[in-house]
Amino acid sequence: MTDLFAPDSPSGTDPFDENEGAVRPGPFWRHALWVAGIGAAAVAAGWVTSLFRIGFDEYGLPPAAPGALWPYLAVWAAVGLTVAAVLRATAARVPVYAPGRIAVALTYLGTRLSLGWRPEAPLVGAMAAVALIAAAVWCAIALRPHRAEAEL
Length: 152
Known about the structure:
Helix 1 runs parallel beside helix 4 (about 100-115) and helix 3 (about 70-90) packs antiparallel against helix 4. It is built from six helices and no strands. Helix content is about 60%, strand content about 0%. The chain is mainly α.
């Protein structure tokens, strides 16, 4: 029973372990499915956790900010797919630490903030650029050569 909670899996490596920095090769469909799942889950989580800010007229809850929700959801779905694709493409070639968590966190935060107070288009674009730059920096950190390993 305690083997389920052991830090090391019995086979040595767990393909679903996001903490381990391992290369994640595989067929294209698996990468595409992972990207779509991560993007959809992050946007859905951001939408669900901002429901109290959106408000429903039939229940008498006024929205915190006026405006339509669909443009924000569409933008963050596209940004989430792009962030997840960049991280997964890098993770298919070199070990990347927690690419799923990073993609979910960046997409979730952008969705949650956008739906909560519905900023103007330039600010949404800046938030999307920050998410994409953060993902690129995370990938650049994974791509840098490890000097300690090279010296051995």
